[in-house]
Queue: 2 jobs
Job 1
Amino acid sequence: MTSNLAMFVFIAWRNIWRYPIRSLLTVFALAGGLIIVILYSVLLEGMTRQMVTYATDMSTGHLQLHRRAFIDDQDLYATLPWSYLNAAETALPAASVAPRLYAAGLASAQASSTGVLIKAVDAAREPRATRLLDSVRSGTAELGPASDSTDGLPRANVVVGTQLAKNLKLQVDSELILVTQAADGSIGNGLFRVAAILKPVDTAFDRTGVLMSIDTYQSLMSLDSGFHELAVKTPDAENLGTGQALLQQTLERLAREQPLDELGGAAVVRNWREINPTISDMLKLSQSMVVVIGFIVVSLASLGMLNTMLMAVHERTHEFGILLAIGMKSRWLMVMVLIESFLLALISAAIGAALGTWLGRYLQTHGIDFSGTMPDGYDWAGMSFEPVMRGYLDPGHVVNACLIMTLVAMLSSLLPSWRTVRLKPAEVMR
Amino acid sequence: MTLLTLTGICKNFIQGEIQVRALKDINLEVDEGEFAALVGPSGSGKTTLLNIIGGLDAPSSGEAHLNGTDITRLKEAQLSDFRLFQLGFIFQAYNLVPVLSALENVELIMVLQGRPAAERRARAEHYLDLVGLGNVMQRRPSALSGGQQQRVAVARALACGPRLVLADEPTANLDSENASALLDIMYKLSREQKTTFIFSTHDPRVMERAERLIKLRDGRIESDEVVAQPGHAALA
């Protein structure tokens, strides 16, 4: 049987090169389909990873800590005590944590005004946990007190989103008035200096976000009992379960030692997938999409294989009849045709994988640069992306694409190979 | 000793709405080592009879025993093995595998038989030498003349050690010189190997050299005669 198989492989290989142009066209069609699938997977994986990176590095972090009422209703009073910040740092010494506070307000500048989301961050801790303050388009991301206004009024620095700056015609050094309802029921208001304008990092924050220091926030909002959110960046982004469980245990211990008021609800730890289910779903969807699109593209390319093998079997019907007559079993003929298809698929897979990997690496290293036409990047499905679309080459995807292509190519050659089984030597030689 | 016995072989075809009786009650015995020719005009049933003897086609009725085995009762897979181990075929149109060299073509059947590599290589080279192709055995069929291709087919048919070689119009595509040379080789080998040959032919050159002429007409055996002095008897 081994000897037979070796002979069949030998004959199949020679038969492939019997009509080299036809075989090469088939190989190019299959390899081309494979390259398209690999590049599609590279770009989709790159976008997905960029999406995840944006979601975690830019603002969300890997884990977040809130009280239940804040998650459900953005309850201003649902704060966590400052002692929780120290406890979290002690529980996860390798992680970086950043406390945040939020409020809704009305921003006015010159003749325009709009609703804004006020976000207070710790200027020292935030850069260790996220890249939010690094994403500056113009100005310097200084938070805290600023020089007095020309009228001698005290001011504090704020950083605003790109679209908000456009809407309110703000530039660096522009003045901004914020009005809000403070925690004590009073009207909180203040005059602020725009210290920096951020690059687009998140479509919602881009339109409405105003960043300030925690001290400034506490002064504006009359709220110093704690913080609303704790963003945590862990060293191992792939394995968040351990850190999440450890933090949850710490919270439960703290809840026993320092019970929280009932109105704000319990403290809850969530990972970025739970916080951004859309992104998490898109991750899963993108993986399914690679398989579906890959299957469609490769199936179309495999029509070439079907055609080639049907032609090959049709042209060699008489030859097959001779082989049957001299004692070859029809199932061996079928195996020989299948080997021929397999070899074609194998050559196509080798060429497609090599070229696809090379192009994929290029996309991973250099990406596709849209900065000339879209300097601020682009939005897709509500997400912001950098102007350079970078791919990510996952060797597993290349292997899967090769396997899908080989499988589909083999399936498409079942019909031609099955035809050999039905050949009757006396009839085909007549 | 009788090698082949045909008893009451009939073969009917349906052509359109008409039933054609290609063979009618054929009864025949062929002994081991015979060099026999089935002769007759086109449509007389030669190829059909050869196909039935070779297990390529089934008779409508009757029995065909080769070396004690009733071919007509064998299943498809058994027929393949029967053809592989008991028969050698030589076809009119050479019918070599075009992507294999002369040597590989001869080896192919022995690969299917499961013979060891060294043995099949030695046998293939030996038989190609016997048919005078020792110097071109690495050439593919496209680089061989018609006569040379048919000699490769003879070597292929004999190298697998068959009891019976069936040759369907083996000289039909050859010129006189090549046909004569091929017949000499086949006859010589049949004598040396003690292999039985049955030809179908309407080529007088073949008929002259056959030891037995079985004449078919309209699907029946018209005559069956042993030739006293075949044309190449001197070679024996």
Note: The longest strand of chain A covers residues 96-109.
Job 2
Amino acid sequence: MTEVAINRAGSASGPATAPVPATGVAPLVAVENLRVSFPASGVEAVRGVSLSIAPGECVALVGESGSGKSVTARALIGLAGPGARVRASAFRVGGGDALTFGPREWRRLRGRFAGLVLQDALVSLDPLRTVGAEITEVLAEHDVVPRPARPERVRALLEAVGVRDPEVRARQHPHQLSGGLRQRALIASAIAAEPELLIADEPTTALDVTVQAQILRLLADRKAAGTALLMISHDLAVVAAVADRVLVMRDGVVVEDGPAREVLTAPRHDYTRALLAAVPSASPRRSASPVPSASPVPSASPVPRRPGRSQKADPHGADPRGAVLAATGLSVAYGSRTAVDDVSFRLHAGETLGVVGESGSGKTTLARLALGLLAPDAGEVTLRGGPWSGLPERRRRPLRPAVQVIAQNPLDSFDPRHTVGRLVADPLSALPRPRRRERAIELLGRVGLPPELLGRRPRELSGGQRQRVAIARALASRPEVLICDEPVSALDVSIQAQVLDLLAEIQAEDGTALLFISHDLGVVRHLSDRVLVMKDGRVVEEGDAHEVFLRPRHPYTRELLAAVPRLPE
Amino acid sequence: MTAAPPAPRPPISRPPRPHPPWSRPSWPRPPAWLGAPLRRLVSAAAVLWAAATTAYAALLLAPGDTVDLLVGDGADTPEIRAQIVAEWGLDRPEAVRYLSYLGRLLHGDLGRSYQLQQDVGEVLAGQVGPTARLTLAAAAVGVALAFALAVATAGRSAWPRRIVSAAELVAVSVPQFVIGIVLLFVFSFSLGWFPVSGAADPQALVLPALALGLPVAGVLGQVLREGLERALEQPFVVTARSRGLGERAVVARHALRHALLPAVTLTGWFTGVLLGGAVITEALFGRPGLGRVAMQAVSAKDMPVVMAVVILSAAVYVTISVLLDLAYRIIDPRLRSA
């Protein structure tokens, strides 16, 4: 029994476990006209979705946040959420009529018939329990193997998902494992009872690109071993490699449904086309938003590449050598760990320097050094040729308006109780009060937001609006350098594209220098003139963005580029 | 117990950030396996020393002659005065006096009550039992009630949750002595189920334990429910449910442990409530115990006993908070060094 299961989990499966053809077999899940509403809040999250999954098939649900894709998937195992009202004209799951299921029937199906893998295993596995305990829980709940055999089965499962030293790992807690390892452990717990269907809800979204590639391979292996997959993702490129069929969702409705290749290469619906066009990696260095952005400033003209940028007249008088912000030999260590190791860069007016690297590569530390929030152990940062990192804070403060930051999640960097007006006007304390309001409206206009938003609070804004407010606030002090730390990572692709366009516009108008930090190579490629590739605190490759992405020299850069999921051409 | 000891704050209540870029350690840390517990013990010792010194300073700084203060309202004869001068070293330099006081404390010698003509240690030893019984019973009542109510009502918006949380609010806001009087009135005077006073039989423990434990149950119940509800919204609960776990298993195996963390933080606070409340509760129910001894000592100005009670409370408090620190580490693996 154990042996069979392990073979099944491995990638080298025999003919007996080959994928079942999708036709002529009763589907695992068949739902027609699924509607999920939350009467308490009056939200109708899913409005008439029909979906079927055949044994061994991989179906992908793609859409942006709020499209209803997660709720749809969770409704299939009766976990639509507290207070959810689920209706359907037909709803069959695992051979039973789900419309008649009570809690007991649902519980029998969960884990056994369908396993669920969520986004971030750091919080999707119980952080207070060991990985082994979490996997054992499934084995015990469905009595998959008798108690004495469970530790051995846990070991076998971890091994099957590619975890080395499974005995050691089973005794560890999620926070002791790397992102990739704990995602593997989460998958091991989802497949422990050998379900026929694996539901993976954004299974790679929290992961670095190379780790993402590994997890996608693992999911493909599961599919090859005969498990049906329901993949939920906001990223079309991620599902491209695995999916047989793609359903594109928007506002609770499936707008397009077809074989993966067709949907990805010859989309019929405008929204699918817009989504595909918005994937930044598909469109190096041009306007990314397929629809004109909401900004009043015309964005139709893509930002042209200007070779002689540094010659551009600088209103603040950049230093003769042209670099607004320059770093030489920066090093910082936290305790015994070196976060940034001998990093140098020069950032000219009107230029974008992209910094790419995976988590832990020192990108954010570099941003903090550039902002003068962290003193380097060695090396120096200069602003307009004058001292910056070496200054005492009291003397740095008058210069701070020149260097502003845009953070990943404005919800964390805004005071949630302040209104948009107050947030934007915060750096304008030098202006008289009535002028402040005027200027705030002006700034909102620049980032394409109507003045009505002045009285709103961050929570009442959409993700894209929040990031625009963050940009408006950064622009308030007329900075020469904008440091963007993962500014679009928390946004949907279409919104991402608009925000990137906005940044490019602002740069074209003001000649602002951008230090643009991201783990997303597509995004960096889209915006940068030059790039630094960081690994373990060091710069492994540096150069013209076009060159680096086209002809990467360092093996690590090549590895990163190879790991980026691609849409079929 | 009347004078609250300087409360050592339970220090850690959030997961540690291994390398916070904004607060770099400015001194080399001791080895990880030794570091936290050792630092904790050093700070515990410092708190005890501070409590002892505060008590000593109160004695020195109080207006009037130190010998008069130590005698209090007790028999004041030349022999006793001479004995005090000798025992407290009042004829010697101040530094020596202070050090010998600390030295005596280190040896467990709490001094002598000249009013009761008894060693303070003996006075307290006879009273620790009843107080320990009362506070432990009250803690048990509070914790058990809080758990039962929180688990039964967490995450439900129905009316039982509203009623329970209203009851908790009442229990928190009404002073202990009022609760005690109401309990006495209903269960002793009217119904006659429990004795009015004394500590002779176990039944006499019921009402005082309730009076002391209900406010604890009120606060702890609210914190636990809040923690449970927050935990039940976490993704790992969705994962647990997706494995086929029932509601009870989800709460018992996953959510409850997360809810415990903030509740454990409160344990330090309710130790203080229980120790302080014991004074009033013992007086109200006519029970023997440290609280009553402290009351009598204060009103009779029996300074050596008051000082000893202050130091003893500090010791209990410090011990509990060291134990809490250990409990955090057991409950939350993220707090153990990786």
Note: Residues 1-31 of chain B have pLDDT under 50 and may be disordered.
